[in-house]
Amino acid sequence: MSESDGSKAIDLDSMSLDQLNQVKQQEEGRLQALTNQFAQIREVAARLKASRDAVSELSPSSEGKDVMVPLTSSLYVPAKLREPNKLLVEIGTGFYVEKSSKDTCAFLDRKLKLVDANSENITKAIQVTRRNVESVNVAAQGKLIEIHARQMGMKERAAAES
């Protein structure tokens, strides 16, 4: 198996079929977790892009415009925009900072770059894990062929001795 993820290489040929199945289950579990993580990070990227697009549409002429403000994911209240160039931006764990539209877009772009970089790292880890699963599958198939050949050889010897 691969060493590119920082883990040690495992000699699959020296493992039993049960051990190979155990390794395969571990790698498939890791693959599932990485796939879920990738989906979540892409959702975050979509939300950041939507936020950046919404902010970039604001202009001084937006003042007084009717908007719907979300209180929850399914509950909104009507409001009017005042000072469209003053935005409260969550910078993490419930902390908010007032920023201009330009500064908000720059902040969202930086966050988006970080999310995209993490997404690329997860994609690479998914590729490595898929290769690991395939390597385990190939090793398991080889073990099965080896076991089958041994059994056939034993049958032929038994037939020759009788």
Automatic annotation (TrEMBL):
<dbReference type="GO" id="GO:0006457">
    <property type="term" value="P:protein folding"/>
</dbReference>
<keyword id="KW-0175">Coiled coil</keyword>
<dbReference type="GO" id="GO:1990113">
    <property type="term" value="P:RNA polymerase I assembly"/>
</dbReference>
<dbReference type="GO" id="GO:1990114">
    <property type="term" value="P:RNA polymerase II core complex assembly"/>
</dbReference>
<dbReference type="GO" id="GO:0016272">
    <property type="term" value="C:prefoldin complex"/>
</dbReference>
<dbReference type="GO" id="GO:0005737">
    <property type="term" value="C:cytoplasm"/>
</dbReference>
<dbReference type="InterPro" id="IPR009053">
    <property type="entry name" value="Prefoldin"/>
</dbReference>
<protein>
    <recommendedName>
        <fullName>Prefoldin subunit 5</fullName>
    </recommendedName>
</protein>
<dbReference type="InterPro" id="IPR004127">
    <property type="entry name" value="Prefoldin_subunit_alpha"/>
</dbReference>
<dbReference type="GO" id="GO:1990115">
    <property type="term" value="P:RNA polymerase III assembly"/>
</dbReference>
<dbReference type="InterPro" id="IPR011599">
    <property type="entry name" value="PFD_alpha_archaea"/>
</dbReference>
<feature type="coiled-coil region">
    <location>
        <begin position="17"/>
        <end position="51"/>
    </location>
</feature>
<dbReference type="Pfam" id="PF02996">
    <property type="entry name" value="Prefoldin"/>
</dbReference>
<dbReference type="GO" id="GO:0051082">
    <property type="term" value="F:unfolded protein binding"/>
</dbReference>
<comment type="similarity">
    <text>Belongs to the prefoldin subunit alpha family.</text>
</comment>
